[in-house]
Design goal:
Beta-Lactamase, 9 strands, 263 residues, 3-stranded antiparallel beta sheet, alpha+beta, 6-stranded antiparallel beta sheet, 20% strand, single chain, Arc Repressor Mutant, subunit A
């Protein structure tokens, strides 16, 4: 995961640089760097030590950060920031029962994600068992281009926006199965758009396959994606399509229908 970058300063009174820097400091903490010194935080955020110190002490006084000797770390209070988003969205309350039923029926993990920049962000997850070498939870990010949910969400973008994203995409080959050619990737995304689902076979991680479908709002706009993730040695692609696709599509349509009634 890349280090947080401060957005470019924008002219006018509508941009508060100190607030942007405070958010960057919070985002500097991660599973790879849960505890950091003042110098480390400043370096990650591109701040002076004095600037980083003021922000960290402000966050400490508000209860979002604690200090243990020379090491700063986030407190559980930072979860309030993420849960404010989740609690304000009816999707997650409506989706969870359908996802739990899908996981119970297929005995495979089920997740929901939205598109944010170049990544998908997990907003709900019902795990059946550990299927990936990395830990996934609420707020976890993965590259959109090589994930099933990402290709569904990219396929929902206007064509000009998709082309802009593809033009600046930096493809890395995660496995021998990764589609590393932009033209082939475009075809896969267009295919996902046309058929209404996307299957990824070991492109993100060896042994991992996933199947995703879109979740739409009342207007038919794709707002999220729903997926099933499995291990290929237990559930080959053909079996996942046969067993999982009808149930996944039904769950996604059910959630979309509930959203239409709610809005």
């Amino acid at each position: 995961m890349s280090e947080p970058e401060l957005p470019a300063l924008k002219p006018g009174d509508s941009y508060v640089q100190s607030f942007a820097r405070g958010l960057a400091v919070i985002r500097a903490f991660s599973a790879a760097a849960p505890r950091q010194t003042l110098t480390e935080v400043a370096k990650r955020c591109g701040l002076s030590r004095a600037g980083a110190r003021r922000i960290l002490l402000t966050l400490e006084s508000l209860g979002y950060v604690k200090l243990d000797g020379r090491l700063f770390y986030l407190t559980p209070k930072t979860l309030d920031l993420g849960f404010a988003y989740l609690s304000s969205q009816p999707l997650w309350h409506l989706a969870e029962p359908a996802m739990q039923a899908l996981t119970a029926e297929l005995q495979e993990s089920c997740s929901a994600a939205v598109l944010d920049g170049e990544d998908i962000v997990y907003v709900l997850r019902v795990p059946a068992r550990k299927i990936m070498s990395i830990n996934l939870g609420l707020g976890s990010r993965l590259p959109a281009w090589c994930t099933s949910m990402g290709r569904v969400l990219l396929g929902a973008l206007p064509e000009h926006e998709l082309e802009m994203r593809l033009a600046r995409l930096q493809i890395t080959r995660n496995t021998a199965h990764t589609v590393a050619d932009v033209d082939q990737l475009r075809e896969r995304i267009h295919q996902a758009r046309k058929q209404g689902w996307s299957l990824i076979n070991q492109e993100l991680e060896d042994g991992l396959i996933s199947l995703a479908a879109p979740i739409t709002d009342r207007s038919g706009q794709v707002i999220a994606a729903l997926n099933i993730g499995a291990q290929v040695n237990r559930m080959p692609p053909e079996a996942l399509l046969e067993r999982g696709l009808p149930k996944l599509l039904a769950a996604a349509q059910s959630i979309s229908g509930l959203l239409a009634l709610k809005s």
